[in-house]
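Structure ticket #2291
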Amino acid sequence: MTILAIHRRNQRAFTLVEVVISLALAVLVYGGILKGYVIITDQAEWSCYSLAAQSLAMQGVEQSRSAKWDPQSWPPTDELGTTNYRTVEQLDVPISGNPVFATNYISVSMVNTNPPLRMLRTDCIWYLPSRGVKTRGPFTNTVVTLRCSDQ
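Resolution: structure written out below.
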């Protein structure tokens, strides 16, 4: 066997350092991919709850808008008045297990008297369900609109 053949045989294998570095790089790449999936899943779950809370906040404004308010009729009708109230309702999300509740704070305030104009505001406060010990939130979705009489 010549020296050249021995030299080629020694160059064919990987060294231990090269194997350890390549395994470390592979672990970092796969760990990054898994972490990305976890972050995307958390963001999708948060978006689901946020859209459900926005729908609940919009529902509170729609309930306030549906009340009859006609100060120019005889007798004047005002089923809404300037008031503040709250409701606690379940978020409409597909879950298994415990339901998630949100609180709607609905406020009606007079903005202008001539022409009559009221502001309807709903703040929906909700929490993301806990995983382990930590609960995320509170989060708030707000809807604000103006309403004239007899509309």
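Closing remark: Residues 3-148 form one domain.
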